[in-house]
Structures are given as C-alpha cells and as structure tokens.
C-alpha cells in the first residue's frame, strides 16, 4: 500500500490565501447572464472587476478523498444585486460539503433540484452544512472581502449547467440600505 503524505497549511486569515494552492480568478466577464440587471452589468463590465478568487488544494477524483479551497468574494453589486459566486450542484449530486466562514459578512443560497431555496447568513466562525443534492452559491452582503473555506469530496465535481441557465429562485439585494432575500422575478421552473 502506498500512503499519501499528510499535509498541514496555514490559511492567511486576512487575505484568504492558502500557500501552494491553485489560484482561480473569476472576473465579472465570466458571469455573463448571471445578474438580473443587464444594463448595470454591461456598465460595470468596462472595469471588469475581479468578483472572486479561489485557492484550491485538490486531489485526484477518488471517492473517500477530500478537497479544500478558500474563496475570497469581493464586495460589490450589479444594480441592487450583491456579488456572488456562480453557484453549482455537484456532478455527483449526492455529495455533501462543509463551508466555514473566515472573514467578512455574507451568506449562502441553497436550492433543491425542484427550486426550493434557503438562505443561511454567514460570518467568521459560521459552519454551513450543504446536504446532498442542494445547489449552493455564496453572496457577499458586506463591504469588505467575504472569505470562507469549503471542504468537499474529491469526486464531487461541479455541475454549473442548471444554475447558469435558470439561476436561483431567490436573489439577494440591497434595498433602502437593507439586505433582502427576495423572489427572483426571472425564475421559472
Ligand atoms: O464553483 P463556484 O460556484 O464558482 O464557487 C467557488 C467555490 O465553490 C467551490 O467550488 C466549492 O463548492 C470551491 O472551489 C469554491 O470555494
Ligand atoms: Fe460545492
């Protein structure tokens, strides 16, 4: 039996960086069609800001193994809608996941395949359990980077299809200075 070498890394709790991790950068241009307000999207696209960065330590896709990643989700809005991650379900849909809040303020939208959505507020120290089958997206509702850790099965994979096409049945917006989770007017089953 060949054993893998154990690994310990220190996450920089200020910046979210994991030393030695693979870095992925998602700019606004990679989120075309995701936000409700197309006019606001196109205006902000001139700057094409970074919406989030992911620092991932991933293994080969074997069952039983685990991946982990931090995400640094920047503050910002497209129209009234707060910046968010694309959101996905798992290619192996029955794979669960754990998130842990490190810095900043935000939350997670979760949704069943039938379109029932839930919102869980997150801050430093919040643990979120993402059960099997639930699609998930994080949202930054504050004005500093929202940083969190995700731990997920190495064979879970990502399925972006349904969310890219239909979005979530709820959206997270700012209205009169308040954070509101409201029905997505563009949602159809
Ligand atoms: O894959 P998305 O929806 O862009 O969101 C990024 C985050 O989600 C994960 O894919 C884990 O669910 C991580 O790689 C990262 O923390
Ligand atoms: Fe996931």
Note down, in words, how this protein is organized.
This protein is 7% helix and 40% strand. The strands form four sheets. A six-stranded antiparallel beta sheet has the order 1-2-3-11-6-9, with no helix packed on it. The protein is mainly β and 189 residues long. The protein is globular, with a radius of gyration of 16 Å. It is built from two helices and 13 strands. The longest helix is centred in the first third of the chain and has 8 residues, at 38-45. Fe (ii) ion (FE2) is lined by residues 88, 90, 97, 136, 152.
Describe this structure in a few short sentences:
This protein has 189 residues and is mainly beta. It contains two helices and 13 strands.
In DSSP terms (H or I, runs of 4 or more residues), the helix count works out at 2
* Percentage beta strand: 35-45%
What is the molecular shape? Answer: globular
Order of helices and strands: EHEEEEEEEEEEHEE
Averaging pLDDT over every residue, what do you get?
97
Strand order of the largest sheet: 1-2-3-11-6-9
Query: What does the largest sheet look like?
Result: 6 strands, antiparallel
Number of strands: 13
What is the first-to-last residue Cα distance? 49 Å
Q: Ligands bound here?
A: 6-O-phosphono-beta-D-fructofuranose, fe (ii) ion
Helical/strand content category: mainly beta
Low-confidence stretches: none
């Amino acid at each position: 039996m060949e054993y893998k070498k154990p690994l310990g890394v220190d996450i920089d709790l200020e910046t979210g960086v994991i030393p030695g991790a693979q870095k992925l950068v998602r700019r606004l241009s990679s989120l075309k069609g995701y936000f409700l307000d197309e006019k606001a999207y196109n205006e902000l696209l001139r700057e094409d800001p970074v919406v989030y960065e992911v620092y991932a330590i991933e293994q080969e896709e074997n069952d039983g193994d685990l991946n982990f990643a931090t995400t640094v989700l920047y503050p910002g809005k497209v129209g009234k809608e707060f910046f968010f991650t694309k959101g996905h379900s798992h290619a192996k849909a029955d794979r669960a996941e754990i998130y842990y809040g490190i810095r900043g303020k935000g939350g997670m939208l979760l949704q069943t395949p039938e379109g029932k959505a839930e919102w869980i507020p997150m801050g430093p120290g919040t643990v979120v359990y993402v059960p099997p089958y639930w699609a998930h997206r994080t949202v930054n509702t504050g004005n500093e980077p929202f940083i969190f850790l995700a731990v997920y099965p190495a064979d879970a994979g990502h399925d972006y299809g349904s969310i890219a096409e239909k979005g979530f049945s709820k959206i997270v917006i700012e209205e009169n200075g308040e954070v509101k989770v409201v029905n997505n007017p563009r949602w159809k089953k």
